[in-house]
């Protein structure tokens, strides 16, 4: 399948007028386009700063040196790199001729995007496994989830992501050489890559979080022996439901539209504005993750206040007990 069959409307560009004969940009970006990229640049800054706060907090404060938080810092590193690398590259991608001619720069951009985005998804999946053992099997948590196991999880998340990116880019290069005769490469790029990088992790996370929610409900019901039992049980059930709803809701809101579009693109062309908008929606999940996975915890909020206020430079705070 040729690259031109993926996009429709080659005479349209979100920021430029296109010379269809030479596929060159014929005028400077419009004012609306400049405002859009100021907005996208702001998202990049928020993504970088938010995840940098998480990285500094876990690295500096010894109280946060736990296997569970190592998974969070791995997620924060992936999301930080998305903000500092993928965001600027994606902005340049949209404003360049990459929509019309897939040169080396575009393939480098795609490979970095796939690696970091897939790593972010895998880290989220590993965090769900950590939460499962913490809630559903608390007595076995310290033996099942330790530094060694978490290290293996992190290495696998990054390693598998690199393999997925290599397979994705290799399939794309082969398609350029053999056109519509590359049936295996089309299957690899359009079907297998989304399955392993998104749909399978999503199914795992949905199953795990459903189990966590059910167990949390049972635990809340089992403590109804005190005078405040009804209030406590209701509060715990609501907190569990709200947390899981925010986690999965934000993730699916950002990622599901893009992968549905990507999966059904074989049925017809995808317009440039739709594809680019959905791609930016997926990248925004890296901005939300620090708020979802860090700001829910009081000790992280305390660490953030210390960092933002500058007290971290006073020294002797790494052993401080965070609320």
UniProtKB/TrEMBL annotation:
Species assigned in the record: Nothobranchius furzeri (Turquoise killifish)
Where does the record place it? Cell membrane
On the tree of life, the source organism's domain of life is Eukaryota
Q: What is this protein called?
A: Trace amine associated receptor 1
Q: Give the transmembrane region(s).
A: 32-58, 70-101, 149-171, 191-210, 244-268, 280-300
> Could you tell me which residue ranges the G-protein coupled receptors family 1 profile domain spans?
50-293
Q: What is its main location?
A: membrane
Keyword list (alphabetical) reads:
Cell membrane, G-protein coupled receptor, Membrane, Receptor, Transducer, Transmembrane, Transmembrane helix
Offer an example of a GO molecular function term for this protein.
Answer: trace-amine receptor activity
Q: Which GO terms describe its cellular component?
A: plasma membrane
The record, for SUPFAM superfamilies, names:
Family A G protein-coupled receptor-like
* Homology family: Belongs to the G-protein coupled receptor 1 family.
């Amino acid at each position: 399948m040729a690259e031109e069959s993926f996009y429709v409307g080659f005479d349209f560009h979100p920021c430029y007028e296109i010379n269809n004969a030479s596929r060159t940009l014929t005028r400077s970006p419009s004012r609306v386009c400049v405002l859009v990229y100021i907005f996208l640049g702001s998202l990049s800054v928020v993504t970088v700063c938010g995840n940098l706060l998480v990285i500094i907090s876990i690295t500096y404060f010894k109280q946060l040196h736990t296997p569970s938080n190592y998974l969070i810092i791995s997620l924060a590193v992936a999301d930080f790199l998305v903000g500092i690398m993928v965001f600027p590259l994606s902005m340049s991608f949209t404003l360049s001729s990459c929509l019309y001619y897939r040169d080396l720069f575009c393939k480098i951009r795609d490979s970095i995007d796939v690696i970091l985005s897939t790593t972010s998804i895998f880290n989220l999946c590993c965090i769900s496994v950590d939460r499962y053992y913490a809630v559903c099997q608390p007595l076995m948590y310290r033996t099942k989830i330790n530094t060694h196991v978490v290290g293996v999880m992190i290495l696998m998340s990054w390693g598998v992501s690199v393999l997925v990116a290599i397979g994705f880019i290799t399939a794309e290069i082969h398609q350029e050489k053999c056109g519509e005769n590359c049936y295996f490469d089309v299957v690899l790029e359009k079907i297998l890559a989304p399955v392993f990088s998104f749909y399978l992790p999503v199914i795992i996370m949905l199953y795990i979080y459903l189990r966590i929610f059910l167990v949390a409900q049972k635990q809340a019901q089992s403590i109804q022996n005190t005078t405040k039992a009804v209030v406590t049980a209701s509060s715990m059930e609501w907190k569990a439901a709200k947390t899981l709803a925010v986690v999965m809701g934000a993730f699916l809101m950002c990622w599901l539209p893009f992968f549905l579009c990507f999966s059904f693109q074989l049925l017809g062309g995808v317009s440039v504005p739709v594809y680019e908008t959905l791609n930016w929606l997926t990248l925004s999940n890296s901005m939300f993750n620090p708020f979802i996975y860090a700001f829910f915890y009081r000790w992280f909020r305390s660490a953030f206040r210390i960092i933002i206020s500058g007290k971290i430079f006073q020294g002797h705070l790494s052993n401080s007990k965070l609320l």
